[in-house]
Specification:
- By secondary structure, this protein is of the alpha/beta class.
- Helix content is 14%, strand content 33%.
- The chain is built from 5 helices and 43 strands.
- Strands 1-2-5-8-12-16-20-23-27-31-35-38 form a 12-stranded parallel beta sheet. The protein has an 11-stranded parallel beta sheet with strand order 3-6-9-13-17-21-24-28-32-36-39.
- The protein is globular.
Length: 430
């Protein structure tokens, strides 16, 4: 009977064990990337040798990894030397058949795509992972020059998205009815009518830890939100020009949460160089608005029924609200894109002065990191892109740490006592 149980258990384990993944090498195994994708199954990797591949690829619903040799050792030179060129005939990469986050493209330069929607990468009803790529020089007749998301939830991280264009919305990234995670990207020098960097419609994207710079549009040079509820945190949004409204951010009928950002050096031809809010209810905290420009309201312009809540921000020209200040934030070198804060009190940082934004953020928010680039003073959040990160109530106090340690010790003593009692019982023959 025991043998039967062991055999049955082993048989069931084999039945439910996933098949081993296959690595398909391009061009050794197949000449084109698409041929490799067509031959693959879920869980496989299509690994591509450096070179230029003039083709338009479709993941065809497969949850596979398509990557350059960057996957092997993280060498960024593989990104620039492994190119997928769309030949201006279609989107370079398509995810349009319910792909999940297990479908990943990584380590390429994705260029010269052209489509009505999504010149570089088109996502529809899918949730792929798009990471560690350069997405550049793509265009869309309508929306999403670099990346287009429709009813999708992709993870877009650690990419350079540059020099893309859309005739309508989202030069860099466009999302509608989507909730993408957009993090740790460099989004620069893209252009569109609305939302040069990022544009979202009826969406709730998470936009965090990005550099959004030098993007241009008629409105919303950096980010545009229509009827959306984005979470915008820890970004540097700088040097984005618009012809009319909202050099940094443009919001219409939206409820964005904007925290710990640096919004600086953006320009608008009419109103709101930093942010333009139209019938919107942004909640803004721990954010710097400085050196933006417009003929009217260079930092913040409200229109219609807008009712923002702005607290613990550094706003040039001033703004009423709890904890708000109007003092030069003392960036290290803003002319060269360095928006870290100066610190002279912290001797390791060797700054020429102390930024007034250090430890001036919402006292209920704490810095996760204390170093020369992030939290420069105490644990209380700094204002700006490099502060904040956690609700202070989530950090255990010294007494809570003590209680936790005591609980672990009691658990350890209790375990030892139980073991001793069992050993004693066994020694007496019970």
């Amino acid at each position: 009977m025991r043998r039967a149980i062991i055999f049955t258990t082993a048989f069931v384990a084999v039945i439910f064990m996933p098949a081993s993944a296959t690595i398909i090498n391009i061009p050794d195994d197949y000449e084109t990337i698409q041929e490799g994708i067509d031959a693959s199954s879920d869980g496989d990797t299509v690994r591509v040798v450096s070179g230029t591949y003039v083709e338009n690829i479709d993941f065809s619903g497969k949850n596979i990894v398509v990557g350059s040799w960057f996957l092997d050792d993280g060498d960024p030179s593989y990104i620039s030397s492994t190119i997928i060129d769309g030949n201006a005939t279609d989107a370079v990469v398509k995810f349009e058949n319910s792909e999940t986050n297990d479908a990943r493209i990584a380590g390429f330069t994705i260029q010269n795509g052209h489509a009505s929607f999504g010149g570089g990468i088109s996502c529809s009803n899918s949730s792929p992972t798009i990471s560690n790529n350069t997405i550049s020089g793509n265009s869309a007749t309508w929306d999403g020059g670099g990346v287009f998301c429709d009813y999708s939830h992709p993870t877009i991280s650690n990419n350079t998205i540059s020099g893309n264009s859309a005739a309508w919305d989202g030069g860099g990234i466009f999302c509608d009815y989507s909730d993408p995670t957009i993090s740790n990207n460099t989004i620069i020098e893209n252009s569109a009518d609305d939302g040069g960097g990022i544009s979202c419609f009826q969406s709730s994207p998470t936009i965090s830890n990005n550099t959004i710079s030098g993007n241009s549009a008629n409105q919303g040079g950096g980010i545009t939100c229509y009827e959306s509820s984005p979470t915008i945190s820890n970004n540097t949004i700088s040097g984005n020009p618009t012809q009319y409204f909202g050099g940094g951010i443009y919001c219409y009928d939206s409820s964005p949460t904007i925290s710990n950002n640096t919004i600086s050096g953006n320009t608008a031809g009419l109103y709101g160089g930093g942010i333009f809010s139209w019938d919107s209810s942004p909640v803004i905290t721990n954010t710097i608005f400085w050196a933006d420009s417009a003929p009217t309201d260079p930092e913040i312009h409200l229109y219609g029924t807008s009712s923002p809540v702005i607290t613990y921000c550094d706003v040039e020209g001033g703004w009423s609200g709890e904890g708000n200040i109007d003092i030069d934030p003392l960036f290290r070198d803003p002319e060269n894109g360095d928006f870290y804060l100066q610190s002279i009190t912290n001797l390791d940082c060797d700054g020429p002065g102390d930024s007034p934004c250090i430890d001036a953020g919402d006292p209920s928010i704490c810095d996760l990191v204390l170093d020369c680039d992030h939290g420069l003073g105490e644990i209380r959040s700094d204002i700006g892109a490099y502060g904040g990160g956690i609700d202070c109530s989530e950090i255990p106090t010294l007494s809570e740490w003590g209680m936790l340690l005591m609980g672990l010790l009691l658990l350890a003593f209790g375990t030892v006592a139980v073991v001793r009692r069992r050993r004693g019982a066994l020694s007496k023959g019970y």
